[in-house]
Amino acid sequence: MSKIYRTGDFDVPAATLWRALTDSELLAVWLMPNDFRPEVGHRFTMTTDPAPMFDGTVHLEVLELDPPHQMRWSWTGGPIDTIVTFTVTELGPRSCRFEFLQEGFHGPGAEFARFFLKGGWRKLSPLLRAIATTLDVMERNK
Amino acid sequence: MVRPPAVLDTFSAIGHPRRRAIMSLLATEDKVVSDLVAAVGVSQSAVSEHLAALRSVGLVTYRKRGRERLYRLDTAPLRDVTDWISTLEAFWDERFDRLGRLLETIDEENGQ
Q: What domain range includes position B32?
C-alpha cells in the first residue's frame, strides 16, 4: 500500500491543533484559501498556484468528522483522486501528535502514482527492463 | 478509419492497460506493428490507434525500416508523472512547516 504519510508532535494542546485543522481562516493561513465548513457532506474548494496538469483548484468533501481526533476529506486535484485523513492524538495537556495520510489515488494516473510513491521510478531512464517487468506484474495483478 | 487519439497528457496515455502492454513490449526492444498485434492480441487498427496516442504524448517514436515503421519507447515524458508526485510531497512538507509556525503563533496569542 502506497501513500503519502507524515507525522509530527507539537507542543500545544490537542484542541489548538484541531482548531488549526477545522477553522477556515486558519486553514487558509497554513494550507490554502478555502470555503471549508466543519460539516460532514460539505463540498468545498481550495485554491493554490496552477502546476502542470493541475489548474490550481482542489475539490474536496468532508467525509468524516470526529472532533477533536479525526477528519477525512476526499481530495481531487490534478490527475488523481485521493482521500486525506488528519488524525490528532493527545499526548499530554500541552502536547499532541499530528498524523496526515493521503491515499487512494484513483483516476487515470492512479496505478502509476501508487508505483511512484513506492519510490521505484525515481531512477527511471536506466531502468527500462524494470519498467517492463513491473508493467507486466501490474497487468497480471489486475 | 482510425479515430484521433483522445489523449491529453501522459497520465491519460498510461491509464489504458493495452497501451501499458504496448509500452511494456517496446521496453524490451523496438518492434514493428505486426509484432505488437501478435503479442497484444488485438486488431492492427487498435494497436495503431494506441501507438498514435502514445506518440501524441511522446512516449513512442518510430523510424522507418524499409516499408515498415519500427517503434521505440521513450520514457522521458513519464517524468511528468514522477514530477507530479514529487511536487505533491514537497507541497505537504512545506505546508506542515507552515502549520508548525501557525501553532506557535496561536499558542502565544493564548498567552501560554
A: 10-74
